[in-house]
Amino acid sequence: MATRRTEIPPTAGLPPRWRDLVPRAGASLVQHAAAFLGVESVQAECSGTAALVVALTTLHRISGRRVVVVPAYTCPLVALAVAHCGLQLRLCDLAPDGIDLDAAALAQACDRDVLAVVPTHLAGRVADVATAIAIARACGAFVIEDAAQAFGARSEGRAVGLDGDLGFFSLAVGKGLTTFEGGLLVTRDVDLRRELARTSRDRVPHRVSWELRRSLELLGYHALYRPSLLRHAYGAPLRRALRDGDPVRAVGDDFPARIPLHTLGRWRRAVGANAFARLPGFLADCERRAELRRSTLASIAGVEVIGDPVNARGTWPFLLLRLHDEARRDAVLARLWGAGLGVSRLFIHALPDYAYLRDVVGEWQVPNARAFAATTLTVSNSPWLDEPGFDAICALLE
Predict the structure, then answer these.
(1) Which among 117, 208, 232, 300 is most buried, taking Cβ atoms within 10 Å?
(2) In this predicted model, what pLDDT tens digit does every residue of 343-355 receive, in sequence order?
Protein backbone atom coordinates (compact mmCIF):
# COMPACT_ATOMS: atom_id res chain seq x y z
CA MET A 1 0.00 0.00 0.00
CA ALA A 2 1.44 3.37 -1.00
CA THR A 3 2.46 5.81 1.71
CA ARG A 4 0.11 8.78 2.03
CA ARG A 5 1.09 12.43 2.03
CA THR A 6 -0.40 12.75 5.50
CA GLU A 7 0.30 10.68 8.59
CA ILE A 8 -2.25 9.41 11.08
CA PRO A 9 -0.77 9.08 14.58
CA PRO A 10 -0.96 5.57 16.06
CA THR A 11 -2.92 6.83 19.07
CA ALA A 12 -5.61 9.44 19.61
CA GLY A 13 -3.96 12.34 21.39
CA LEU A 14 -5.96 15.41 22.36
CA PRO A 15 -5.17 17.91 19.57
CA PRO A 16 -3.29 20.85 21.10
CA ARG A 17 -4.26 24.49 20.76
CA TRP A 18 -1.82 27.36 20.85
CA ARG A 19 -3.78 29.20 23.51
CA ASP A 20 -3.08 26.30 25.87
CA LEU A 21 0.49 27.59 26.07
CA VAL A 22 -0.52 30.81 27.81
CA PRO A 23 -0.95 30.37 31.60
CA ARG A 24 -4.34 31.47 32.86
CA ALA A 25 -5.96 31.84 36.26
CA GLY A 26 -8.12 28.95 37.40
CA ALA A 27 -7.85 25.43 38.71
CA SER A 28 -4.45 23.75 38.53
CA LEU A 29 -3.63 20.53 36.69
CA VAL A 30 -3.84 18.43 39.85
CA GLN A 31 -7.08 20.10 40.91
CA HIS A 32 -8.64 19.33 37.53
CA ALA A 33 -7.35 15.76 37.69
CA ALA A 34 -8.64 15.20 41.24
CA ALA A 35 -12.12 16.43 40.30
CA PHE A 36 -12.07 14.32 37.13
CA LEU A 37 -11.11 11.18 39.08
CA GLY A 38 -13.38 11.93 42.04
CA VAL A 39 -10.65 12.02 44.71
CA GLU A 40 -9.41 14.58 47.19
CA SER A 41 -5.99 15.09 45.64
CA VAL A 42 -3.62 13.86 42.96
CA GLN A 43 0.17 13.95 42.90
CA ALA A 44 1.92 15.03 39.68
CA GLU A 45 5.25 13.60 38.56
CA CYS A 46 7.41 14.06 35.47
CA SER A 47 6.20 10.81 33.83
CA GLY A 48 4.05 7.77 34.45
CA THR A 49 7.26 5.80 34.98
CA ALA A 50 8.43 8.32 37.56
CA ALA A 51 5.07 7.96 39.31
CA LEU A 52 5.63 4.19 39.46
CA VAL A 53 9.15 4.73 40.84
CA VAL A 54 7.78 6.99 43.58
CA ALA A 55 5.09 4.42 44.37
CA LEU A 56 7.50 1.47 44.58
CA THR A 57 10.05 3.43 46.60
CA THR A 58 7.35 4.43 49.09
CA LEU A 59 5.87 0.94 49.47
CA HIS A 60 9.33 -0.62 49.89
CA ARG A 61 10.11 1.85 52.67
CA ILE A 62 6.85 0.93 54.39
CA SER A 63 7.05 -2.86 54.12
CA GLY A 64 10.64 -3.81 53.35
CA ARG A 65 9.55 -6.43 50.81
CA ARG A 66 11.37 -6.60 47.49
CA VAL A 67 9.43 -8.58 44.83
CA VAL A 68 7.16 -6.86 42.30
CA VAL A 69 4.80 -9.00 40.19
CA VAL A 70 3.98 -7.52 36.78
CA PRO A 71 2.32 -8.83 33.60
CA ALA A 72 4.68 -10.59 31.22
CA TYR A 73 3.28 -8.40 28.44
CA THR A 74 3.49 -4.76 29.39
CA CYS A 75 5.55 -1.65 28.71
CA PRO A 76 9.30 -2.29 29.13
CA LEU A 77 9.46 0.84 31.29
CA VAL A 78 7.67 -1.09 34.05
CA ALA A 79 10.56 -3.55 34.24
CA LEU A 80 13.08 -0.70 34.15
CA ALA A 81 11.25 1.09 36.98
CA VAL A 82 11.44 -2.03 39.17
CA ALA A 83 15.17 -2.33 38.46
CA HIS A 84 15.66 1.40 39.10
CA CYS A 85 14.27 0.91 42.61
CA GLY A 86 16.61 -2.01 43.30
CA LEU A 87 13.69 -4.43 43.54
CA GLN A 88 13.18 -7.92 42.11
CA LEU A 89 10.95 -8.45 39.09
CA ARG A 90 8.64 -11.47 38.96
CA LEU A 91 6.56 -12.03 35.84
CA CYS A 92 3.02 -13.37 35.68
CA ASP A 93 1.64 -14.75 32.43
CA LEU A 94 -1.53 -13.35 30.89
CA ALA A 95 -4.79 -15.26 30.97
CA PRO A 96 -5.29 -17.22 27.73
CA ASP A 97 -8.16 -15.07 26.51
CA GLY A 98 -7.21 -11.46 27.16
CA ILE A 99 -5.16 -8.81 28.93
CA ASP A 100 -5.69 -9.89 32.54
CA LEU A 101 -3.18 -11.62 34.78
CA ASP A 102 -3.69 -15.38 34.82
CA ALA A 103 -5.26 -16.03 38.23
CA ALA A 104 -3.58 -19.40 38.81
CA ALA A 105 -0.18 -18.10 37.78
CA LEU A 106 -0.64 -15.01 39.97
CA ALA A 107 -1.55 -17.11 43.00
CA GLN A 108 1.59 -19.16 42.45
CA ALA A 109 3.72 -16.03 42.07
CA CYS A 110 2.50 -14.37 45.27
CA ASP A 111 4.27 -15.18 48.52
CA ARG A 112 5.48 -13.31 51.60
CA ASP A 113 8.30 -11.68 49.63
CA VAL A 114 5.94 -9.86 47.27
CA LEU A 115 5.81 -6.12 47.77
CA ALA A 116 3.26 -5.29 45.07
CA VAL A 117 1.18 -6.71 42.23
CA VAL A 118 0.71 -4.46 39.19
CA PRO A 119 -2.44 -5.25 37.15
CA THR A 120 -2.46 -3.24 33.94
CA HIS A 121 -5.32 -1.50 32.13
CA LEU A 122 -3.63 -2.30 28.84
CA ALA A 123 -4.43 -0.16 25.78
CA GLY A 124 -7.12 1.73 27.73
CA ARG A 125 -9.07 -1.47 28.37
CA VAL A 126 -10.32 -2.11 31.90
CA ALA A 127 -8.51 -4.99 33.59
CA ASP A 128 -9.73 -7.39 36.26
CA VAL A 129 -8.30 -5.69 39.33
CA ALA A 130 -10.58 -7.45 41.84
CA THR A 131 -8.91 -10.83 41.33
CA ALA A 132 -5.46 -9.29 41.67
CA ILE A 133 -6.53 -7.56 44.89
CA ALA A 134 -7.91 -10.76 46.40
CA ILE A 135 -4.73 -12.72 45.66
CA ALA A 136 -2.42 -9.89 46.76
CA ARG A 137 -4.30 -9.40 50.03
CA ALA A 138 -3.86 -13.08 50.86
CA CYS A 139 -0.08 -12.61 51.01
CA GLY A 140 -0.11 -9.07 52.40
CA ALA A 141 1.04 -7.38 49.17
CA PHE A 142 0.02 -3.98 47.83
CA VAL A 143 -1.77 -3.48 44.52
CA ILE A 144 -0.64 -0.76 42.10
CA GLU A 145 -2.96 -0.17 39.16
CA ASP A 146 -1.05 0.62 35.99
CA ALA A 147 -3.54 2.91 34.26
CA ALA A 148 -0.92 4.70 32.16
CA GLN A 149 -3.01 4.26 29.00
CA ALA A 150 -6.40 4.56 30.71
CA PHE A 151 -6.85 8.08 32.09
CA GLY A 152 -10.61 8.48 31.95
CA ALA A 153 -11.54 4.77 32.01
CA ARG A 154 -14.20 3.71 34.48
CA SER A 155 -15.35 0.51 36.13
CA GLU A 156 -18.68 0.24 37.95
CA GLY A 157 -19.01 4.00 37.47
CA ARG A 158 -15.74 4.84 39.22
CA ALA A 159 -12.41 5.86 37.71
CA VAL A 160 -9.88 3.07 37.31
CA GLY A 161 -6.81 3.41 39.49
CA LEU A 162 -8.83 3.71 42.70
CA ASP A 163 -9.57 0.09 43.59
CA GLY A 164 -6.00 -0.91 44.40
CA ASP A 165 -3.85 0.73 47.04
CA LEU A 166 -2.76 3.27 44.46
CA GLY A 167 -2.78 3.90 40.75
CA PHE A 168 -0.84 5.90 38.22
CA PHE A 169 -1.57 7.51 34.85
CA SER A 170 0.60 8.80 32.04
CA LEU A 171 0.38 12.23 30.41
CA ALA A 172 2.81 11.30 27.65
CA VAL A 173 2.13 12.05 23.99
CA GLY A 174 -0.75 10.01 22.61
CA LYS A 175 -2.37 9.30 25.98
CA GLY A 176 -5.12 11.90 25.54
CA LEU A 177 -4.18 14.94 27.63
CA THR A 178 -0.43 15.53 27.54
CA THR A 179 2.28 17.70 29.05
CA PHE A 180 4.58 15.91 26.57
CA GLU A 181 5.81 13.78 29.48
CA GLY A 182 4.03 13.71 32.80
CA GLY A 183 2.36 11.41 35.25
CA LEU A 184 -0.31 11.37 37.92
CA LEU A 185 -0.28 9.30 41.10
CA VAL A 186 -3.41 8.69 43.16
CA THR A 187 -4.45 6.89 46.33
CA ARG A 188 -7.51 7.07 48.56
CA ASP A 189 -5.43 6.25 51.66
CA VAL A 190 -4.58 9.49 53.48
CA ASP A 191 -1.51 8.07 55.23
CA LEU A 192 -0.16 6.56 52.04
CA ARG A 193 -0.78 9.85 50.23
CA ARG A 194 1.37 11.58 52.82
CA GLU A 195 4.16 9.03 52.34
CA LEU A 196 4.05 9.37 48.55
CA ALA A 197 4.42 13.14 48.84
CA ARG A 198 7.35 12.65 51.22
CA THR A 199 9.11 10.35 48.76
CA SER A 200 8.65 12.85 45.96
CA ARG A 201 10.04 15.69 48.07
CA ASP A 202 13.05 13.61 49.16
CA ARG A 203 13.88 11.76 45.93
CA VAL A 204 12.68 13.87 42.99
CA PRO A 205 14.97 16.85 42.33
CA HIS A 206 14.40 20.09 40.47
CA ARG A 207 16.37 19.79 37.23
CA VAL A 208 16.26 22.86 35.04
CA SER A 209 17.92 21.10 32.09
CA TRP A 210 15.30 18.35 31.96
CA GLU A 211 12.41 20.76 32.35
CA LEU A 212 13.80 22.97 29.60
CA ARG A 213 14.13 19.94 27.34
CA ARG A 214 10.57 18.80 27.99
CA SER A 215 9.25 22.33 27.52
CA LEU A 216 10.92 22.58 24.12
CA GLU A 217 9.53 19.16 23.20
CA LEU A 218 6.06 20.30 24.22
CA LEU A 219 6.40 23.35 21.98
CA GLY A 220 7.50 21.06 19.15
CA TYR A 221 4.49 18.85 19.76
CA HIS A 222 2.17 21.85 19.46
CA ALA A 223 3.84 22.81 16.19
CA LEU A 224 4.03 19.36 14.56
CA TYR A 225 0.99 17.42 15.83
CA ARG A 226 -1.05 17.63 12.66
CA PRO A 227 -1.40 15.12 9.81
CA SER A 228 0.62 17.14 7.31
CA LEU A 229 3.69 17.42 9.57
CA LEU A 230 3.55 14.11 11.43
CA ARG A 231 4.63 12.51 8.17
CA HIS A 232 8.09 14.01 8.82
CA ALA A 233 8.19 14.03 12.63
CA TYR A 234 6.79 10.52 13.15
CA GLY A 235 6.30 8.75 9.82
CA ALA A 236 9.81 9.13 8.42
CA PRO A 237 11.59 7.69 11.50
CA LEU A 238 9.01 4.89 11.64
CA ARG A 239 9.60 3.85 8.05
CA ARG A 240 13.36 4.09 8.50
CA ALA A 241 13.18 1.70 11.46
CA LEU A 242 10.97 -0.68 9.49
CA ARG A 243 13.41 -0.66 6.58
CA ASP A 244 16.17 -1.49 9.06
CA GLY A 245 14.13 -4.44 10.33
CA ASP A 246 13.92 -2.96 13.84
CA PRO A 247 10.31 -3.16 15.06
CA VAL A 248 11.34 -2.31 18.64
CA ARG A 249 12.66 1.06 17.48
CA ALA A 250 9.66 1.49 15.17
CA VAL A 251 7.21 1.53 18.08
CA GLY A 252 9.57 3.29 20.51
CA ASP A 253 10.15 0.33 22.82
CA ASP A 254 13.91 0.97 22.93
CA PHE A 255 14.02 2.81 26.25
CA PRO A 256 17.25 3.87 27.98
CA ALA A 257 18.04 2.15 31.27
CA ARG A 258 18.24 5.44 33.15
CA ILE A 259 14.88 6.86 34.19
CA PRO A 260 14.80 10.68 34.40
CA LEU A 261 13.44 11.97 37.70
CA HIS A 262 12.66 15.65 38.04
CA THR A 263 9.76 17.81 39.07
CA LEU A 264 7.02 18.63 36.58
CA GLY A 265 7.44 22.35 35.92
CA ARG A 266 4.88 25.04 36.59
CA TRP A 267 4.48 26.08 32.94
CA ARG A 268 3.82 22.54 31.66
CA ARG A 269 1.32 22.03 34.48
CA ALA A 270 -0.46 25.18 33.32
CA VAL A 271 -0.54 23.91 29.72
CA GLY A 272 -2.15 20.69 30.92
CA ALA A 273 -4.64 22.57 33.05
CA ASN A 274 -5.64 24.76 30.10
CA ALA A 275 -6.30 21.72 27.92
CA PHE A 276 -8.29 19.86 30.56
CA ALA A 277 -11.62 21.47 29.70
CA ARG A 278 -11.55 19.73 26.30
CA LEU A 279 -10.67 16.29 27.65
CA PRO A 280 -14.13 14.92 28.61
CA GLY A 281 -15.63 15.82 25.24
CA PHE A 282 -12.62 14.39 23.42
CA LEU A 283 -12.84 11.08 25.30
CA ALA A 284 -16.57 10.87 24.60
CA ASP A 285 -15.94 11.41 20.87
CA CYS A 286 -13.25 8.73 20.93
CA GLU A 287 -15.64 6.31 22.59
CA ARG A 288 -18.42 6.94 20.06
CA ARG A 289 -16.03 6.55 17.12
CA ALA A 290 -14.47 3.40 18.60
CA GLU A 291 -17.83 1.73 19.19
CA LEU A 292 -18.83 2.21 15.56
CA ARG A 293 -15.50 1.05 14.19
CA ARG A 294 -15.22 -1.78 16.67
CA SER A 295 -18.46 -3.25 15.31
CA THR A 296 -17.17 -3.04 11.75
CA LEU A 297 -13.85 -4.65 12.61
CA ALA A 298 -15.43 -7.39 14.71
CA SER A 299 -17.61 -8.38 11.75
CA ILE A 300 -14.50 -9.36 9.79
CA ALA A 301 -13.78 -13.08 10.03
CA GLY A 302 -10.65 -13.84 12.03
CA VAL A 303 -10.50 -10.45 13.78
CA GLU A 304 -11.12 -10.00 17.52
CA VAL A 305 -11.33 -6.50 18.98
CA ILE A 306 -10.26 -6.45 22.62
CA GLY A 307 -13.03 -4.86 24.69
CA ASP A 308 -14.05 -4.25 28.29
CA PRO A 309 -15.90 -6.31 30.91
CA VAL A 310 -19.56 -5.65 31.66
CA ASN A 311 -20.08 -2.39 33.59
CA ALA A 312 -16.72 -1.02 32.48
CA ARG A 313 -15.91 1.74 29.99
CA GLY A 314 -12.32 2.07 28.91
CA THR A 315 -10.64 4.80 26.93
CA TRP A 316 -9.98 4.33 23.24
CA PRO A 317 -6.61 5.76 22.16
CA PHE A 318 -6.64 2.98 19.55
CA LEU A 319 -8.40 -0.29 18.87
CA LEU A 320 -6.43 -3.37 19.86
CA LEU A 321 -6.99 -6.23 17.42
CA ARG A 322 -6.06 -9.87 17.79
CA LEU A 323 -5.79 -12.10 14.74
CA HIS A 324 -5.86 -15.89 14.62
CA ASP A 325 -2.17 -16.38 14.07
CA GLU A 326 1.12 -14.55 13.70
CA ALA A 327 1.39 -15.15 9.95
CA ARG A 328 -1.92 -13.40 9.25
CA ARG A 329 -1.05 -10.55 11.58
CA ASP A 330 2.33 -10.06 9.90
CA ALA A 331 0.77 -10.17 6.44
CA VAL A 332 -1.52 -7.29 7.43
CA LEU A 333 1.33 -5.31 8.97
CA ALA A 334 3.47 -5.81 5.87
CA ARG A 335 0.88 -3.78 3.92
CA LEU A 336 -0.35 -1.32 6.54
CA TRP A 337 2.43 -0.59 9.03
CA GLY A 338 4.18 2.50 7.73
CA ALA A 339 1.46 3.30 5.19
CA GLY A 340 0.40 6.45 7.08
CA LEU A 341 -2.97 5.07 8.21
CA GLY A 342 -2.20 4.76 11.92
CA VAL A 343 -1.85 0.96 11.99
CA SER A 344 0.89 -0.14 14.37
CA ARG A 345 1.74 -2.53 17.18
CA LEU A 346 1.54 -2.03 20.93
CA PHE A 347 4.56 -3.61 22.66
CA ILE A 348 6.64 -5.75 20.32
CA HIS A 349 7.57 -8.56 22.70
CA ALA A 350 6.70 -10.18 25.97
CA LEU A 351 9.19 -8.79 28.50
CA PRO A 352 11.65 -11.73 28.45
CA ASP A 353 12.14 -11.35 24.70
CA TYR A 354 13.64 -7.85 24.62
CA ALA A 355 17.37 -8.30 24.16
CA TYR A 356 18.23 -5.12 26.05
CA LEU A 357 16.15 -6.23 29.06
CA ARG A 358 17.79 -9.65 29.40
CA ASP A 359 19.77 -8.76 32.53
CA VAL A 360 16.74 -7.06 34.11
CA VAL A 361 14.04 -9.61 33.30
CA GLY A 362 15.72 -13.01 32.92
CA GLU A 363 14.14 -16.15 31.46
CA TRP A 364 10.45 -16.92 31.98
CA GLN A 365 7.98 -19.34 30.49
CA VAL A 366 5.05 -17.09 29.56
CA PRO A 367 3.37 -18.66 26.52
CA ASN A 368 0.16 -16.64 26.68
CA ALA A 369 2.00 -13.33 26.78
CA ARG A 370 4.17 -14.39 23.86
CA ALA A 371 1.12 -15.46 21.86
CA PHE A 372 -0.57 -12.14 22.59
CA ALA A 373 2.47 -10.19 21.40
CA ALA A 374 2.65 -12.30 18.24
CA THR A 375 -0.97 -11.91 17.14
CA THR A 376 -2.01 -8.34 17.98
CA LEU A 377 -1.90 -5.04 16.15
CA THR A 378 -3.44 -1.63 16.73
CA VAL A 379 -5.64 0.68 14.64
CA SER A 380 -5.54 4.36 15.55
CA ASN A 381 -8.68 5.98 16.93
CA SER A 382 -7.45 9.44 16.01
CA PRO A 383 -10.17 11.80 14.69
CA TRP A 384 -7.86 12.32 11.72
CA LEU A 385 -8.37 8.75 10.47
CA ASP A 386 -11.21 9.45 8.03
CA GLU A 387 -13.71 6.97 6.64
CA PRO A 388 -11.84 6.28 3.38
CA GLY A 389 -8.71 5.52 5.39
CA PHE A 390 -10.58 3.26 7.79
CA ASP A 391 -12.33 1.52 4.88
CA ALA A 392 -8.92 0.81 3.32
CA ILE A 393 -7.78 -0.86 6.54
CA CYS A 394 -10.95 -2.97 6.71
CA ALA A 395 -10.65 -3.97 3.06
CA LEU A 396 -7.18 -5.31 3.59
CA LEU A 397 -8.18 -7.13 6.78
CA GLU A 398 -11.03 -8.76 4.90
Answers:
(1) 117
(2) 999 999 999 999 9
